[in-house]
Write a structure and sequence with these properties.
The chain has about 325 residues and is of the alpha/beta class. The protein folds into two domains: about 130 residues, 2-Layer Sandwich (Nucleotidyltransferase, domain 5), CATH 3.30.420.40; about 170 residues, ATPase, nucleotide binding domain (Nucleotidyltransferase, domain 5), CATH 3.30.420.40. It contains eleven helices and ten strands. The longest helix is centred in the last third of the chain and has 29 residues. The model has no long low-confidence stretch (mean pLDDT about 95).
Length: about 325
């Protein structure tokens, strides 16, 4: 099987070529500089940048892979969940390629792609609990097999990565907030400020808006102290630790109660050093395995889309040119 995959769910444009189960070429275009001016992703601008990047990236990937469109067996593309303008650009481009060359089209769920991104490096035994945590998503899944995912819990408001971005914007640290806070937190005391751990011990859903509000309130009351770099580092370290504690404890608790000994953490926030360190320590205490994709696969990319599209196409799954996008995705819910 030779498959071309396209990823445009948010602000990263990705194209990848998979040949016989191996990613042989891929390219990614970031829009960080564009959206940094606004402190967050502007959907209309993201869509325009995808439109500009897709054709040259596709040409580059095909040339690096030494193949032509005519030699492909399938086109895979992200169709949900994500920003609708961005998804529409990617799907329209994929439809044009599929129609022009008479190729099958396979729509892919973005979160499913993140869950299985680890499989591009190594296989993880089933079942496992997967935490997908990024700027737009914070979700827990019970994964029993390829394509067999049930929702355990999800955020009720802000995603964890979104909370990082908003706190970084509040503190005038820059964008994207996650990597900046991760770096600054290494110089601070994570126990300096006792920020709340929202919904800890109250099921497996998440909520980070209250934590964000707590940081806002702290800044209002102690803003003069933030002029000192050491105190600012304490603030971001304490905020980050509160987010990490919630993510880790809920994930480990879910795995324990579901009698699962393997954990996969994926998505952009999976690159966070404190999350990796804390999750590995807690999983070790519980006798559980924990798996993180390499940093390059934590971010949105087309290689993970190619992996999911490949096994779904191998099952005989394909979609018509009437396929549409969706900002949301629904999953069966785990019942206890």
């Amino acid at each position: 099987m030779r498959l071309l995959a396209i990823e445009t769910s948010c602000d990263d444009t990705g194209v990848a070529l998979m040949d016989r189960g191996r990613v042989v070429a891929q390219a990614l275009s970031s829009q960080v500089d564009v959206h940094a001016l606004f402190g967050g992703v502007v959907p209309e601008l993201a869509a325009r940048k995808h439109l500009e990047a897709l054709y040259p990236l596709t040409v580059k990937v095909l040339e690096e892979g030494g193949v032509t469109l005519a030699s492909l067996d399938c086109i895979g593309v992200t169709v949900k969940p994500g920003l609708v303008p961005s998804l529409l650009v990617g799907l329209s481009f994929a439809k044009a390629l599929a129609f022009g060359k008479g190729l099958p089209l396979v729509g892919v769920d973005h979160l499913e792609a993140h869950v299985f991104s680890i499989f591009l490096e190594r296989r993880v035994g089933f079942p496992f609990v997967a935490l997908v945590v990024s700027g737009g998503h914070t979700s827990l899944f019970l994964v029993k097999d390829y394509g067999d995912m049930a929702l355990v819990g999800q955020t009720r408001d802000d995603a964890a990565g979104e909370a990082f971005d908003k706190v970084a914007k509040l503190l005038n640290l820059g964008y994207p907030g996650g990597p900046i806070i991760d770096r600054m937190a290494r110089e601070g005391d994570p126990n300096a400020i006792n920020f709340p751990r929202p919904m800890l011990g109250k099921g497996w859903d998440f909520s980070f808006s209250g934590l964000k509000t707590a940081v806002v309130q702290y800044v209002r009351e102690h803003g003069d102290k933030l002029k000192d770099s050491w105190h600012l580092a304490d603030v971001v370290a304490s905020f980050q630790q509160a987010v990490v504690d919630v993510l880790v404890e809920k994930t480990v608790d879910a795995a324990r109660r579901l009698d699962v000994s393997r954990i996969v953490v994926a998505g952009g926030v999976a690159a966070n050093s404190a999350l990796r360190k804390t999750m590995e320590a807690r999983a070790g205490e519980e006798g559980m395995e924990v798996h993180f994709p390499p940093l390059v696969l934590c971010m949105d990319n087309a290689a993970m889309v190619a992996f999911v599209a490949a096994y779904r196409f191998a099952w005989g799954e394909q979609h018509s040119l009437d396929l549409d996008v969706s900002s949301r995705a629904t999953y069966p819910r785990v019942k206890l």
